Each structure stands twice: as structure tokens, then as C-alpha cells.
Amino acid sequence: MTSARARFSFAAMDRMDGRTGDQLRPVAFDLGIAPYADGSVLVTMGNTRVICGVTIEENVPRWMKEQGVSGGWLTAEYSMLPYSTQTRKPRDVAKGRIDGRSMEIQRLIGRSLRAVVDLEKLGSHTIWVDCDVLQADGGTRTAAITGASLAVAMACRKLAREKKVDVPPVRKLVAAVSAGVLDGKTIVDLNYEEDKLVTVDFNLVATEDGEFVEVQGSGEEATFAQSQLDEMLALGLKGIAQLIAAQRAVLARLMVTPPAS
15: buried, middle or exposed (CB in 10 Å: 19+, 13-18, 0-12)? Predict the structure, then answer.
């Protein structure tokens, strides 16, 4: 592993938007964006905006019943709205199938959230997580996971308040962030322009206690060194800690704010 000093020696580098190498874009969570959902969050990371809505049904998939699997289930769907990108993106329904990228991302979101939800304590319920990108400027999958984690936590608290489960089944929070290598320097939380230029593309999903859920990394017609991998991991974990602190601050405010009548 590289030393802490070497790890962040690039932090003074000015990026296209003025950030340092280890600096996240401004992050915000707007709650209750979808009133009919059991939990909903509009997560904003820079110019990327994703609505994360959670619906909990008192039922489980047929395959669980047929195989005698106990507990509940969580599944996710992800889509980019047609106007979320600079050129219109056709809806999947117009093509008659979900595209491969969307399928990959929604599976990632589902895996990430199932890793921190106790499905046994959830009981015979299915948590549906819908992530819809309003505006895409890089990091839509990581923003979706970060916002959905907060939305799931809120929905599960509601489930416990309604006495449908004994305790909220969320074991811990989870968040995600991107990183990469640009001009030989390691950076975190890439915007779209940076994402196009990096020679290494990296995504990290981790829990609030620093345990990894998923690590995705690849060279874009390039290779990368062990030291660069160590730097991306370190920056990713630092960024995730900041995101989870922001999630915790939101949940803390909810604890002291009377619920709406």
C-alpha cells in the first residue's frame, strides 16, 4: 500500500470544475419527492440528479414460494429519462427491451442494497427500488445507489412504525462513488467530461463500516499500477464515508422532526 502522503499528493490538482482530486461534487438529498412511495429521495451530485423511489409490497416473488425460501426480497429497476442526456435517449419500451447497460446497473443497485438489508427480518415483503435519472452528468449508477440506500432506510422505518415488521431490516447504510485516472492523476467522483477522458474507470460500493460490496475497475485502452489501484480505493472509501455522513445527517434530522400527519 502507498503511504497516506503519497496517496493524496495529487489532491491539489485543479480539475475542469475547479475541484481537487479528492473532492466530491456538491451532494444534496431532497426527501418525499414521490409522495405515494414508501420512501423517496432526489439525490443530486453536481449536475447528476436521480429520483430514487421505494415501494414495499406484502408479497414475495413466485420463485421464493416455489423453492420454499423464507424472508423477503429486494429488487431494483433503473432507467434514464429521455431528456436526461444532451441528446434524447429513446425509452426502453420504444425499443421493446431494456438495454444492456441499464440491466447491468439495476442488477448492481439490487445487489448493493440486498447486501445491507436483512431479508429474513423483512418477512414476506418485496422492496421495489426504482431509480430514474433526471439529469446525467456522470456517476448515475453511484448516485442511484447512494440515494436508494437512504430511500430504503426511510421506507423500512415506515414499515416498522406501521408494525409490519418488528424492527427496521436495514443493517447498515451503503453508498457508492466513481474514481479514475486522468492525465496520470487519480481523481474521485467523475463528471461526464472526465469520464470520457479517463484512462482508468473505477466504481466502488461500500458500507458505512468500510466493507466492500462491489469493486468495478477497468483500463480504457490502458493499464494501471497497483499504486493507482490503492489510490482509487482510498479515495473511494474517503468519498463514501462523506456520503454516508450526509445520509446519517438526513436520518438524524428525521428522528427529531415529527412525522407528517
Answer: middle
The C-alpha cell at 160 is 416498522
Neighbouring-strand partners of residue 174: 207
Task: Look up residue 112 and give its DSSP letter.
Answer: H
Tell me which residue of 36, 235, 254 sits closest to 150, measured CA to CA: 254
Copy the grid coordinates of residue 238. 474517503
The rounded radius of gyration (Å) of the Cα atoms in the chain is: 19
Give helix 140-161 / helix 100-114 axis angle, nearest 10°: 40
Q: Give pLDDT tens digits along the chain (261 positions).
A: 333 333 344 445 578 889 999 999 999 999 999 999 999 999 999 999 999 999 999 999 999 999 999 999 999 999 999 899 889 988 887 777 788 889 999 999 999 999 999 999 999 999 999 999 999 999 999 999 999 999 999 999 999 999 999 999 999 999 999 999 999 999 999 999 999 999 999 999 999 999 999 999 999 888 999 999 999 999 999 999 999 999 999 999 887 555 554
Residues in the chain: 261
Question: In angstroms, how far is the first alpha carbon of the chain from the final one?
Answer: 53
Cell 449536475 maps to which residue?
Answer: 47
User: Could you tell me the pTM of the whole model?
Assistant: 0.91
Helices (H), the chain: 4-7, 62-67, 92-95, 100-114, 119-122, 140-161, 192-197, 226-256
Q: Quick one: cell of 88?
A: 434524447
Residue type, 230: D
User: What SS3 state is found at 216?
Assistant: strand
